[in-house]
Amino acid sequence: MSRPASRVEALLEELCVRRGHSLSREKVEAIAADPPSDAEAFVDVVLQAKGLEPGLVDKRTRGALMETVSQWLFDGGTGKGSRSG
To answer: Please, which of 4, 5, 32, 56 could form a disulfide with 10 given CB 3.0 to 4.6 Å?
Structure first.
């Protein structure tokens, strides 16, 4: 696997490899090209890309996704995204 070119790609790789939320290469590229501007919207886009209805996903799964997304992209410069550069 090649090194992710952005925080968004690194996040999507973690969601796939470590969290079991695999997406097709096309969907990863589409999300990376135009990422949502907040964690809630990002989680919704990932769930929709998996073919799920965001409002029907259990709180535990959604919470785990929110935590990971927040750590990579919406961490205020203190989470995984800041370490990745």
So the answer is: 4
φ/ψ of residue 72, rounded to 5: -85, -40
Tokens 């799920």: give the residue: 52
Q: Is residue 72 a contact partner of residue 18, using CB atoms and an 8 Å limit?
A: no
11 close to 64: Cβ distance less than 8 angstroms:
no
Whether pTM exceeds 0.85 = no
Q: How many residues does the chain have?
A: 85
Tokens 């998996």, located at residue: 50
- Say how many CA atoms lie within 13 Å of 54 toward its Cβ: 14
